[in-house]
């Protein structure tokens, strides 16, 4: 099966997505998600200008060889732009192979390992009451796990507080919005949120929280310890994890489970954390970590150290990525939990998906490949709009991690 055409499609049905389309002489078309939120066009250019010309004429079934020729052949390795571009090619090739062999991608990854993929929803509120009401809504819809983020006394807008409905969208057109963050009120407020949540929602539901890289290791240890009575499913990104050894301090002081890695791109970004068992859940996802080929390697390493998979699944990645993540999570042995934020309706007008939610799980269809198709004509109705994620500052104006 030879590649005859490869091109990117940039559209903005609710938010910006970069999609890779690869066509073959067998009349089949494969899709990959190449979206890197806030830096979308850099990946589109990496693909259009440097990668796609190399694919024409290649045998689309040689997934492993193409992966290594793009990774090693670039000389410049790793990094989000490179790995997102390679990931998009890789996923499109798995999609094509499934279509060629008339089987869903999870079958190519080892076959079904579970009934469905358990997901967590995002309950956000500008107040603790609002977040708990939102969580109740998810529980009523059958979710078994919910992430809680809320405004706190003395801190109106920590990370994750959106419109208070099902759709959380932090990116803003043209220029980033500035938000304020202070660790003091945050560290005092989050335990109050979870104390109330357990009192009002009970103990059946799994609760999660995302600290979004904002704490120092000592602060993270303090928060993890303070949250122990409420038995979180995980505390996410407590610290920026570039310095992986800093997690030792956090780990030493708390048994609250830790999830890290949505911004990681390669196995090298995570190998110390995994090897030293400094985390419980690895958040790397298909699109940003070199595709299914590379994500499988990360998951296999993680399995040796009791670390479970927890693919990042925000709405700033397209349904092509979520579809690929669901095939991966259906087949991988050491599955943990899957994030599910729900794309806005416009996104589903462009991306027609075969997956569905039932009993707090997402299920992939048995259609060949990924089971996600892209309507190029409809995509043309949603042109690209430059947009940025927010920037956070301390009260005195110092730039902080968002
Ligand atoms: C999450 C994430 C996202 C990121 C976003 C940045 O856990 O879902 O932290 O909400 O902020 O993907 O692009
Ligand atoms: Mg996160």
Automatic annotation (TrEMBL):
<dbReference type="InterPro" id="IPR034593">
    <property type="entry name" value="DgoD-like"/>
</dbReference>
<dbReference type="InterPro" id="IPR013342">
    <property type="entry name" value="Mandelate_racemase_C"/>
</dbReference>
<feature type="domain" description="Mandelate racemase/muconate lactonizing enzyme C-terminal">
    <location>
        <begin position="128"/>
        <end position="257"/>
    </location>
</feature>
<dbReference type="InterPro" id="IPR036849">
    <property type="entry name" value="Enolase-like_C_sf"/>
</dbReference>
<dbReference type="InterPro" id="IPR034589">
    <property type="entry name" value="D-mannonate_dehydratase-like"/>
</dbReference>
<dbReference type="InterPro" id="IPR018110">
    <property type="entry name" value="Mandel_Rmase/mucon_lact_enz_CS"/>
</dbReference>
<protein>
    <submittedName>
        <fullName>D-galactonate dehydratase family protein</fullName>
    </submittedName>
</protein>
<dbReference type="GO" id="GO:0009063">
    <property type="term" value="P:amino acid catabolic process"/>
</dbReference>
<dbReference type="Pfam" id="PF02746">
    <property type="entry name" value="MR_MLE_N"/>
</dbReference>
<dbReference type="InterPro" id="IPR029065">
    <property type="entry name" value="Enolase_C-like"/>
</dbReference>
<dbReference type="Pfam" id="PF13378">
    <property type="entry name" value="MR_MLE_C"/>
</dbReference>
<dbReference type="GO" id="GO:0008927">
    <property type="term" value="F:mannonate dehydratase activity"/>
</dbReference>
<dbReference type="InterPro" id="IPR013341">
    <property type="entry name" value="Mandelate_racemase_N_dom"/>
</dbReference>
<dbReference type="GO" id="GO:0016052">
    <property type="term" value="P:carbohydrate catabolic process"/>
</dbReference>
<dbReference type="GO" id="GO:0000287">
    <property type="term" value="F:magnesium ion binding"/>
</dbReference>
<dbReference type="InterPro" id="IPR029017">
    <property type="entry name" value="Enolase-like_N"/>
</dbReference>
């Amino acid at each position: 099966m030879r590649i005859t055409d490869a091109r990117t499609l940039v559209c903005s049905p609710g938010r910006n997505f970069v999609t890779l389309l690869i066509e073959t002489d067998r009349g089949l078309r494969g899709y990959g998600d190449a979206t890197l939120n806030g830096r979308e066009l850099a990946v589109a250019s990496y693909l259009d200008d440097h990668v796609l010309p190399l694919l024409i004429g290649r045998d689309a079934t040689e997934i492993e060889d193409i992966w290594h020729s793009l990774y090693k052949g670039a000389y410049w390795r790793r990094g989000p732009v490179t790995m997102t571009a390679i990931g998009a090619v890789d996923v499109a090739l798995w999609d094509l192979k499934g279509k060629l062999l008339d089987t869903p991608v999870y079958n190519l990854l080892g076959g079904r390992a579970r009934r469905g993929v358990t997901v967590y929803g995002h309950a956000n509120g500008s107040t603790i009451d609002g977040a708990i009401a939102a969580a109740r809504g998810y529980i009523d819809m059958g979710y078994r796990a919910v992430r809680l983020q809320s405004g706190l006394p003395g801190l109106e807008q920590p990370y994750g507080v959106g419109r208070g409905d099902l759709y959380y969208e932090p990116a803003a057109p043209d220029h980033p919005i500035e938000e304020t963050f202070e660790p003091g009120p945050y560290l005092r407020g989050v335990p109050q949120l979870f104390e109330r949540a357990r009192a009002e929602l009970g103990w059946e539901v799994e609760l999660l929280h995302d600290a979004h890289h904002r704490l120092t290791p000592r602060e993270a240890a303090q928060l993890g310890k303070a949250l122990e009575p409420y038995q979180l499913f995980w505390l996410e990104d407590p610290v920026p994890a570039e310095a992986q050894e800093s997690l030792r301090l956090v780990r030493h002081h708390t048994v609250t489970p830790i999830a890290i890695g949505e911004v990681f791109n390669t196995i090298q970004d995570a190998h110390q954390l995994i090897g030293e068992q400094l985390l419980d859940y690895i958040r790397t996802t298909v699109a940003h970590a070199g595709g299914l080929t590379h994500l499988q390697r990360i998951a296999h390493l993680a399995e040796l150290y009791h670390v479970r998979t927890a693919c990042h699944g925000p709405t700033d990645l397209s349904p092509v990525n979520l579809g690929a993540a669901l095939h991966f999570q259906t087949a991988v042995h050491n599955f943990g939990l899957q994030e599910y934020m729900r794309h806005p309706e416009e996104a589903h007008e462009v991306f027609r998906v075969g997956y569905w939610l039932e009993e707090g799980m997402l299920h992939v269809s048995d259609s060949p490949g990924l089971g996600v198709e892209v309507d190029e004509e409809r995509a043309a109705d949603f042109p690209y709009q430059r947009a940025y994620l927010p920037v956070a500052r301390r009260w005195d104006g110092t730039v902080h991690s968002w």
